[in-house]
User: What shape does this take?
Amino acid sequence: MGQDFAIPSGLERVAVSPEAGDLPVPRFVDCFIRDAEDRAEGYGDRAGKGLFVPGDGRYAFQILQWLLRTKAVRPGAAFLEWGSGQGMATILAALLGYDAVGVEIDEALVRESRELAERYDVRARFEHGSYDSSAPGMETVTAKNRAAVYVYPWPGEEPHFLELFAAAADPGAYLLMGLGPEDIHVFRKKGG
Assistant: This one.
């Protein structure tokens, strides 16, 4: 997918090494991803008001692993998934040793995320809230104090998430934006 949106001046695009897609994905991680995808197929209109779309878990795992291997982030770094859905990216980050939390506006998906993490005995946290401060009655969870943030936006929402990240992230933090299968754009907040 081509990039057709402007990058805020406080951010820079990070080139992902092609070797990132060759990093190993352990068998148990592949099993978890398949299980999570199978569970997601059963959601139908029950979760996300029928708008739930899972991201590319395998490639997200590889990119998160690449950030650790290149020392872009340290082991145990704070990770946030905006619109975490069933929590796949958050759980994958926790499996890699990130201090991982997902935020989701749909309570049914928050419950599913927690059940999925418990099923695999993964120490990931999930909060009922939003990345959007205009959501009524919701706690807003920002990129502040997070080394890495992951989001899988709807087409056309990319500029909104870039602005949210640029406004709140600490210098040196990374935004991973899923745009399709094996298409994750990585951005870094300048400075730091």
